[in-house]
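Amino acids appear as letters; backbone shape is given numerically. Here is one record.
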Amino acid sequence: MDQILNKVGSYWLGKKATKEIDSVGDDINSLTNSIGGGTKWLVNKLKGKMQKPLPELLKEYDMAAGIFPRDATNYEFNEETGKLTVYIPSICEVGYKDSSVLRFSTTVTGYLEKGKLADVEGIKTKVMIWVKVTSISTDRGKIHFTAGMKKTRSRDAYEVLRDGVGVDKF
């Protein structure tokens, strides 16, 4: 009977230890990613490559400066691939002067090229129901949102930075 209890105890203890070790591993990976991002920022700063403000980057790529909420100031942009990742402190909705509303997740990704943000993840717009925005493009005075169908709006409604209003879920 003692041998059986020892084996059961050892098995249970081993499972518990494995779970704890996995948890520590996840914490270390998270810390490594945070340090990696900070290190990249520090190296760029030492090289003299300061990250420009997000609205400035968007203007450089012929996009409306106020697409993202005002507090979306932290981002990563890979110039070689065009991948843009924007970090927003909390899930929020932003209302624009044309009465449209966009809902943002805490992380928005897409591929930025001249006049277009493609393969978007993390933005929804209200069209009777909340619909995922998959692409944002601009030409002349218009901005086009693709969310199942293409919706064209006046670009000047998105040129001013606006505050996001917190919401419970994306």
Observations:
- The beta strands are 74-77, 83-87, 92-95, 101-113, 116-127, 129-132, 135-139, 142-147, 149-154, 165-166.
